[in-house]
Amino acid sequence: MIVIQAKLIFLTQQDKQIVLDLMKRWSSCMRFAYKRLLEGYDRKTLKRDLQGTFDLNSRYVDDAIMKARSTLESSKELGSNPKKVIFGGRKLFKKLQKRHINGKAYKKLKIRWHEKRKGNLYSRGDKSKKGNLNTRIEVRKNGTFLRINVGERKYVYAKIQAGWKKNKNREEILQEIAKSNMPYSVELKLKNGNIYAYFAIEEEYPEIKITKEKGAIGIDINAYPDNISWAETNEKGNLISYGNMSMPELASGDKDKREYFRWQYAHEIVKIAKEKGKAIVIEELEIKDKGKRGDFSGRKSRRIRHNFSYKSLLSKIKTLARRERIEVTEVNPSYTSIIGMLKYAPQYMITKDIAAAYVIARRGLGLQEKIPDNYIKFLNTLTEKELEELKEHIKNTVKNRHLKKKHLREIDKAIEFLQSLESESERVLKPLDGTSFSTYDFWQVLKVAVVTPFSPEKVPRDFSTLKGLLIQGKWGDP
Questions:
Q1: Does the record carry Coiled coil as a key word (predicted)?
Q2: b/e per residue, 21-55, with b = 16+ CB within 10 A?
Q3: Alpha-carbon distance 189 to 384, whole Å?
Q4: Which domains does the chain have, with CATH numbers?
Q5: What is the reported pTM?
Q6: What is the DSSP string of 33-59?
Q7: Which band of pLDDT confidence, cut at 50, 70 and 90, is reported for residue 22?
Q8: Which residues on adjacent β-strands are paired with residue 239?
């Protein structure tokens, strides 16, 4: 998606006031629709009722409902309470509640909050209507204008000021969009008393040519140290090459600087995939855990904040890859690091990050991971006393894994199940009957059993110690 920002210059103050009133009604309509969606109302009922209540046409109301639904779904994805969403911004709202802010500072904050809460308008593009029916770009001899529908056959025109001199080509792009009849969405926002328009155009991507037919490149993004690890496979999932890319710029600096470097790193990854003729496999990143306080604070906040940044980076990789006709597959990232560190890091003498990228690539090819035979044999040698010690180690990791104590019973069953595996056909892991225990949780049991004994304090970065156990089946004192 391409987004172009522009400032709107109105011919008269009266025209501006009419548009401000429209934005206020639309914002109220969207908030009202959000409350009704929480109560279980359907789109058709809302669309019929809201037109008369807020004096908006059918398209404006439909767009308000769509935005409300989008906000509701986003809230659920982040794991927050949809009933506690604050339109206008929670951060600004909390600042307004502080008693030590008063006078001009308080007034300024209140204006900003009201602008964010009431100064919005969104209009979707429509291909059948040659662009956008409610907010249409019109090219005239004296400039480029935005025609805004403010009522039945009533329009207000505002001149589009598309940026400073260095961005003078923005207006030319908008003119080309208007002439091509491409569908484009327009969002109006009120900031510091001025109205800004954001034009969004959905990109039409060319047909995919580079697929997973010849293999894939798996991408693993790590918060600390900040780096991208990649691993190339052939069509059978065998490791061919790998690499690592440091990203120190994403750890600090202003927003624009980080955004610039995210694009640069995305270009580098896509360049590698294009040169090697391989598809790209990336992680699906979902940020749900907000911590105990619900504000992303505490021990996990660092990782979560990085996930926001890396989700943006992965989105850019997808966009650039599709422009270059490269297939992009998203996979579940669960336990890719654990599988990589236990199975492939010792085998190929690579870092656990590159090993995780390799697992991601294989998962993108639809390959399943089996527990190595020698790990099974190792678990079978554990005595009752050693199994009890293993369970104690698992209990200590339960808090870190966000598991409830009831899952310990399922972990016990998992250990039993692992010890009973004998034939190779059973090595493809399956869920335990009658439990909610995930297949990937077996790898967590292995991690505690194999890694913890030689590195109890923290997970090491060098897994060469496991090579003898993994390949030759040799181990010392359990």
A1: yes
A2: ebbbbbbbbbbbbbebbeeeeeeeebeeebbeebe
A3: 66
A4: 2-201 (no CATH), 212-364 (3.30.420.140), 373-472 (no CATH)
A5: 0.62
A6: HHHHHHTT--HHHHHHHHHHHHT--HH
A7: very high
A8: 233
